[in-house]
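ZP: hey, is the calcium ion complex queued? I don't see it on the tracker
AM: it wasn't, my bad. submitting now with these inputs:
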Amino acid sequence: AKGEGRNRFHYFTPSMQRDAKHRMRLIQDLRHAIAEQEFELYYQPIVGLQQNKCLKAEALIRWRHPTRGLVSPIEFISVAEETGLIVEIGNWVFQQAARQSAIWRDRFGVEVQISINKSPVQFRDEGECFDTWVSLLKKLNLTNNNICVEITEGLLLDGNEAISATLERYRESGIQVSLDDFGTGYSSLAYLKRFEIDFLKIDQSFTRNLDSQSNDFTLCEAIIVMAHKLGMKVIAEGVETEYQRKVLADAGCDYGQGYLFSRPLPSEEFEQRFIEVRLA
Ligand code: C2E
Ligand code: CA
Ligand code: CA
Ligand code: CA
Protein backbone atom coordinates (compact mmCIF):
# COMPACT_ATOMS: atom_id res chain seq x y z
CA ALA A 1 0.00 0.00 0.00
CA LYS A 2 2.92 2.25 0.71
CA GLY A 3 4.30 1.71 -2.79
CA GLU A 4 0.91 2.45 -4.30
CA GLY A 5 0.69 5.72 -2.45
CA ARG A 6 4.04 6.70 -3.81
CA ASN A 7 3.05 5.66 -7.32
CA ARG A 8 0.04 7.83 -7.29
CA PHE A 9 2.34 10.82 -7.37
CA HIS A 10 4.63 9.48 -10.07
CA TYR A 11 3.67 12.32 -12.39
CA PHE A 12 5.34 14.78 -10.06
CA THR A 13 8.84 15.66 -11.17
CA PRO A 14 11.36 15.72 -8.33
CA SER A 15 11.15 19.51 -8.17
CA MET A 16 7.35 19.51 -8.18
CA GLN A 17 7.42 16.89 -5.44
CA ARG A 18 9.60 19.18 -3.44
CA ASP A 19 7.19 22.02 -4.16
CA ALA A 20 4.17 20.02 -3.03
CA LYS A 21 6.01 19.07 0.13
CA HIS A 22 7.10 22.63 0.64
CA ARG A 23 3.54 23.77 0.23
CA MET A 24 2.14 21.25 2.71
CA ARG A 25 4.79 22.21 5.21
CA LEU A 26 3.96 25.87 4.70
CA ILE A 27 0.25 25.22 5.30
CA GLN A 28 1.05 23.32 8.50
CA ASP A 29 3.35 26.07 9.66
CA LEU A 30 0.73 28.72 8.88
CA ARG A 31 -1.88 26.94 11.02
CA HIS A 32 0.67 26.79 13.79
CA ALA A 33 1.52 30.47 13.31
CA ILE A 34 -2.12 31.45 13.72
CA ALA A 35 -2.47 29.41 16.90
CA GLU A 36 0.82 30.64 18.34
CA GLN A 37 0.41 34.24 17.19
CA GLU A 38 3.66 34.40 15.29
CA PHE A 39 2.53 37.36 13.16
CA GLU A 40 3.49 40.99 13.60
CA LEU A 41 2.38 44.16 11.90
CA TYR A 42 4.97 46.55 10.55
CA TYR A 43 3.95 50.11 9.76
CA GLN A 44 5.04 52.23 6.82
CA PRO A 45 4.41 55.99 6.89
CA ILE A 46 2.14 57.57 4.30
CA VAL A 47 3.33 61.15 4.02
CA GLY A 48 1.24 64.18 3.08
CA LEU A 49 3.27 65.56 0.16
CA GLN A 50 1.91 69.06 0.48
CA GLN A 51 2.41 69.15 4.28
CA ASN A 52 5.55 67.00 4.33
CA LYS A 53 4.22 65.14 7.34
CA CYS A 54 3.35 61.53 8.16
CA LEU A 55 -0.45 61.45 8.24
CA LYS A 56 -1.26 57.79 7.78
CA ALA A 57 0.35 54.37 7.94
CA GLU A 58 -0.02 51.12 6.04
CA ALA A 59 0.08 47.98 8.18
CA LEU A 60 2.06 45.19 6.51
CA ILE A 61 2.12 41.72 7.95
CA ARG A 62 5.31 39.90 8.90
CA TRP A 63 5.68 36.33 10.11
CA ARG A 64 8.28 35.67 12.75
CA HIS A 65 8.88 32.02 11.97
CA PRO A 66 10.60 30.15 14.84
CA THR A 67 13.39 28.81 12.60
CA ARG A 68 13.18 30.74 9.33
CA GLY A 69 13.15 34.21 10.84
CA LEU A 70 11.09 37.05 9.42
CA VAL A 71 9.04 35.81 6.45
CA SER A 72 7.70 38.20 3.80
CA PRO A 73 3.97 38.19 3.00
CA ILE A 74 4.90 37.54 -0.63
CA GLU A 75 5.84 34.02 0.47
CA PHE A 76 2.69 33.11 2.32
CA ILE A 77 -0.31 35.34 1.48
CA SER A 78 -1.21 33.50 -1.73
CA VAL A 79 -1.18 30.12 0.06
CA ALA A 80 -3.20 31.63 2.89
CA GLU A 81 -5.71 32.80 0.28
CA GLU A 82 -5.92 29.45 -1.46
CA THR A 83 -6.51 27.60 1.82
CA GLY A 84 -8.89 30.16 3.29
CA LEU A 85 -6.54 30.74 6.23
CA ILE A 86 -6.41 34.38 5.13
CA VAL A 87 -9.79 34.96 6.77
CA GLU A 88 -8.41 34.26 10.23
CA ILE A 89 -5.15 36.04 9.51
CA GLY A 90 -7.07 39.02 8.12
CA ASN A 91 -9.25 39.25 11.20
CA TRP A 92 -6.14 39.26 13.35
CA VAL A 93 -4.63 42.03 11.19
CA PHE A 94 -7.75 44.11 11.55
CA GLN A 95 -7.93 43.75 15.34
CA GLN A 96 -4.25 44.45 15.77
CA ALA A 97 -4.39 47.57 13.58
CA ALA A 98 -7.49 48.88 15.32
CA ARG A 99 -5.93 48.42 18.76
CA GLN A 100 -2.73 50.11 17.58
CA SER A 101 -4.64 53.10 16.27
CA ALA A 102 -6.45 53.42 19.60
CA ILE A 103 -3.18 53.13 21.53
CA TRP A 104 -1.54 55.92 19.51
CA ARG A 105 -4.57 58.12 19.94
CA ASP A 106 -4.76 57.51 23.68
CA ARG A 107 -1.03 57.73 24.34
CA PHE A 108 -0.17 60.66 22.09
CA GLY A 109 -3.46 62.30 21.30
CA VAL A 110 -2.89 62.00 17.55
CA GLU A 111 -5.06 60.30 14.98
CA VAL A 112 -3.05 58.18 12.58
CA GLN A 113 -5.25 56.43 10.09
CA ILE A 114 -4.06 52.86 9.62
CA SER A 115 -4.60 51.11 6.29
CA ILE A 116 -4.91 47.35 6.18
CA ASN A 117 -4.81 45.06 3.17
CA LYS A 118 -7.91 43.00 2.62
CA SER A 119 -7.83 40.05 0.26
CA PRO A 120 -10.78 39.45 -2.09
CA VAL A 121 -11.15 36.04 -0.39
CA GLN A 122 -12.06 37.82 2.85
CA PHE A 123 -15.07 39.39 1.18
CA ARG A 124 -16.69 36.01 0.60
CA ASP A 125 -18.08 35.65 4.11
CA GLU A 126 -18.27 39.37 4.61
CA GLY A 127 -21.44 39.56 6.70
CA GLU A 128 -20.17 37.86 9.81
CA CYS A 129 -16.75 39.43 9.97
CA PHE A 130 -17.99 42.90 9.11
CA ASP A 131 -20.28 43.00 12.14
CA THR A 132 -17.44 41.87 14.43
CA TRP A 133 -15.15 44.51 12.98
CA VAL A 134 -17.66 47.29 13.39
CA SER A 135 -18.41 46.38 16.98
CA LEU A 136 -14.69 46.47 17.82
CA LEU A 137 -14.40 49.88 16.17
CA LYS A 138 -17.32 51.16 18.20
CA LYS A 139 -15.86 49.73 21.39
CA LEU A 140 -12.55 51.48 20.72
CA ASN A 141 -14.30 54.63 19.56
CA LEU A 142 -12.65 54.44 16.13
CA THR A 143 -15.52 55.15 13.79
CA ASN A 144 -14.17 58.40 12.40
CA ASN A 145 -11.97 57.24 9.52
CA ASN A 146 -9.31 55.73 11.77
CA ILE A 147 -9.18 52.61 9.62
CA CYS A 148 -8.84 52.34 5.86
CA VAL A 149 -9.20 49.11 3.91
CA GLU A 150 -7.02 48.56 0.85
CA ILE A 151 -8.65 46.48 -1.86
CA THR A 152 -7.44 45.53 -5.33
CA GLU A 153 -8.99 46.01 -8.72
CA GLY A 154 -9.78 42.30 -9.11
CA LEU A 155 -12.40 42.56 -6.39
CA LEU A 156 -14.27 45.28 -8.25
CA LEU A 157 -14.03 43.37 -11.49
CA ASP A 158 -16.29 40.54 -10.38
CA GLY A 159 -17.90 43.25 -8.49
CA ASN A 160 -21.43 43.45 -8.45
CA GLU A 161 -24.15 44.76 -6.30
CA ALA A 162 -22.85 42.85 -3.27
CA ILE A 163 -19.44 44.53 -3.34
CA SER A 164 -20.99 47.89 -3.95
CA ALA A 165 -23.30 47.39 -0.95
CA THR A 166 -20.36 46.29 1.20
CA LEU A 167 -18.36 49.40 0.34
CA GLU A 168 -21.40 51.47 1.17
CA ARG A 169 -21.56 49.84 4.61
CA TYR A 170 -17.89 50.65 5.11
CA ARG A 171 -18.62 54.28 4.45
CA GLU A 172 -21.51 54.29 6.90
CA SER A 173 -19.28 52.73 9.55
CA GLY A 174 -16.51 55.30 9.15
CA ILE A 175 -14.10 52.99 7.35
CA GLN A 176 -12.39 54.44 4.29
CA VAL A 177 -11.43 52.50 1.17
CA SER A 178 -8.26 52.62 -0.95
CA LEU A 179 -7.84 51.07 -4.35
CA ASP A 180 -4.40 49.42 -4.19
CA ASP A 181 -1.95 48.86 -7.06
CA PHE A 182 -4.00 51.11 -9.31
CA GLY A 183 -3.19 50.74 -12.97
CA THR A 184 -1.78 47.24 -12.86
CA GLY A 185 -4.71 44.84 -12.83
CA TYR A 186 -7.63 44.52 -15.15
CA SER A 187 -8.05 48.24 -15.08
CA SER A 188 -11.40 49.49 -16.06
CA LEU A 189 -12.31 53.05 -15.40
CA ALA A 190 -15.99 52.14 -15.24
CA TYR A 191 -15.78 51.00 -11.65
CA LEU A 192 -14.38 54.33 -10.50
CA LYS A 193 -17.79 55.86 -10.95
CA ARG A 194 -19.67 52.84 -9.61
CA PHE A 195 -17.89 52.32 -6.30
CA GLU A 196 -17.32 54.60 -3.37
CA ILE A 197 -13.55 54.83 -3.14
CA ASP A 198 -11.63 57.38 -1.07
CA PHE A 199 -8.04 56.87 -2.22
CA LEU A 200 -6.29 55.68 -5.35
CA LYS A 201 -2.87 54.17 -4.78
CA ILE A 202 -0.72 54.55 -7.89
CA ASP A 203 1.28 51.37 -8.25
CA GLN A 204 5.02 51.56 -7.81
CA SER A 205 5.59 50.40 -11.37
CA PHE A 206 4.49 53.91 -12.44
CA THR A 207 6.47 55.87 -9.85
CA ARG A 208 9.62 53.81 -10.36
CA ASN A 209 10.55 55.33 -13.70
CA LEU A 210 9.39 58.87 -13.19
CA ASP A 211 12.98 59.97 -13.55
CA SER A 212 13.60 58.51 -16.96
CA GLN A 213 10.32 57.79 -18.72
CA SER A 214 8.12 60.73 -19.35
CA ASN A 215 5.20 58.48 -20.34
CA ASP A 216 4.95 57.29 -16.76
CA PHE A 217 4.94 60.87 -15.58
CA THR A 218 2.12 61.71 -17.99
CA LEU A 219 0.13 58.75 -16.67
CA CYS A 220 0.68 59.76 -13.03
CA GLU A 221 -0.34 63.32 -13.79
CA ALA A 222 -3.48 62.15 -15.60
CA ILE A 223 -4.43 59.78 -12.78
CA ILE A 224 -4.06 62.58 -10.24
CA VAL A 225 -6.24 64.99 -12.22
CA MET A 226 -8.88 62.33 -12.86
CA ALA A 227 -8.95 61.14 -9.24
CA HIS A 228 -9.36 64.68 -7.95
CA LYS A 229 -12.20 65.37 -10.34
CA LEU A 230 -13.90 62.23 -9.07
CA GLY A 231 -13.41 63.35 -5.47
CA MET A 232 -10.64 60.91 -4.56
CA LYS A 233 -7.20 61.50 -3.04
CA VAL A 234 -4.08 59.96 -4.52
CA ILE A 235 -1.29 58.03 -2.81
CA ALA A 236 1.85 57.30 -4.83
CA GLU A 237 3.55 54.05 -3.82
CA GLY A 238 7.22 53.23 -4.15
CA VAL A 239 8.59 56.76 -3.72
CA GLU A 240 12.31 56.14 -3.38
CA THR A 241 14.02 59.33 -4.49
CA GLU A 242 13.80 63.01 -3.70
CA TYR A 243 13.28 63.66 -7.40
CA GLN A 244 10.20 61.41 -7.47
CA ARG A 245 8.84 63.11 -4.37
CA LYS A 246 9.21 66.54 -5.89
CA VAL A 247 7.72 65.62 -9.27
CA LEU A 248 4.72 64.00 -7.58
CA ALA A 249 4.21 66.87 -5.14
CA ASP A 250 4.38 69.38 -8.02
CA ALA A 251 1.81 67.32 -9.94
CA GLY A 252 -0.56 67.72 -6.98
CA CYS A 253 -0.31 64.20 -5.61
CA ASP A 254 -1.72 64.12 -2.07
CA TYR A 255 0.38 61.41 -0.40
CA GLY A 256 3.55 59.46 -0.94
CA GLN A 257 4.71 56.17 0.48
CA GLY A 258 8.09 54.54 -0.01
CA TYR A 259 11.63 53.93 1.09
CA LEU A 260 12.50 57.63 0.72
CA PHE A 261 10.44 58.26 3.85
CA SER A 262 10.94 54.89 5.51
CA ARG A 263 10.72 51.16 5.14
CA PRO A 264 7.92 49.45 7.07
CA LEU A 265 8.86 49.54 10.78
CA PRO A 266 7.94 47.67 13.97
CA SER A 267 5.34 49.65 15.91
CA GLU A 268 7.72 51.05 18.57
CA GLU A 269 10.10 52.33 15.94
CA PHE A 270 7.29 53.85 13.92
CA GLU A 271 6.09 55.55 17.08
CA GLN A 272 9.52 57.05 17.84
CA ARG A 273 10.20 58.23 14.32
CA PHE A 274 6.81 59.42 13.17
CA ILE A 275 4.51 60.07 16.11
CA GLU A 276 6.71 61.47 18.86
CA VAL A 277 8.50 63.62 16.27
CA ARG A 278 5.23 64.94 14.95
CA LEU A 279 4.34 66.18 18.43
CA ALA A 280 7.73 67.78 19.11
P1 C2E B 1 1.22 46.11 -1.18
O1 C2E B 1 -0.07 46.19 -0.46
O2 C2E B 1 1.28 46.72 -2.54
O3 C2E B 1 2.29 46.77 -0.20
C1 C2E B 1 3.37 47.55 -0.61
C2 C2E B 1 4.64 46.72 -0.67
O4 C2E B 1 5.67 47.52 -1.24
C3 C2E B 1 5.15 46.29 0.71
O5 C2E B 1 5.80 45.03 0.56
C4 C2E B 1 6.17 47.38 1.02
O6 C2E B 1 7.15 46.98 1.95
C5 C2E B 1 6.77 47.61 -0.35
N1 C2E B 1 7.35 48.95 -0.49
C6 C2E B 1 7.03 50.08 0.19
N2 C2E B 1 7.76 51.12 -0.23
C7 C2E B 1 8.56 50.66 -1.22
C8 C2E B 1 9.56 51.28 -2.06
O7 C2E B 1 9.87 52.48 -1.97
N3 C2E B 1 10.18 50.47 -2.98
C9 C2E B 1 9.89 49.14 -3.09
N4 C2E B 1 10.54 48.43 -4.00
N5 C2E B 1 8.94 48.53 -2.32
C10 C2E B 1 8.29 49.28 -1.39
P2 C2E B 1 5.53 43.84 1.59
O8 C2E B 1 5.42 44.38 2.98
O9 C2E B 1 6.55 42.79 1.30
O10 C2E B 1 4.11 43.32 1.16
C11 C2E B 1 3.92 42.72 -0.09
C12 C2E B 1 2.46 42.50 -0.38
O11 C2E B 1 1.91 41.53 0.52
C13 C2E B 1 1.59 43.73 -0.20
O12 C2E B 1 1.70 44.57 -1.32
C14 C2E B 1 0.23 43.09 -0.04
O13 C2E B 1 -0.31 42.77 -1.29
C15 C2E B 1 0.56 41.83 0.73
N6 C2E B 1 0.29 42.04 2.15
C16 C2E B 1 1.09 42.57 3.11
N7 C2E B 1 0.46 42.57 4.31
C17 C2E B 1 -0.77 42.02 4.11
C18 C2E B 1 -1.89 41.74 4.96
O14 C2E B 1 -1.92 42.04 6.17
N8 C2E B 1 -2.97 41.14 4.37
C19 C2E B 1 -2.98 40.83 3.03
N9 C2E B 1 -4.09 40.26 2.53
N10 C2E B 1 -1.96 41.09 2.21
C20 C2E B 1 -0.86 41.68 2.75
CA1 CA C 1 -1.44 47.74 0.11
CA1 CA D 1 0.29 48.46 -3.46
CA1 CA E 1 0.74 44.62 -4.47
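AM: back. The chain has twelve helices and ten strands.
ZP: great, adding it to the tracker
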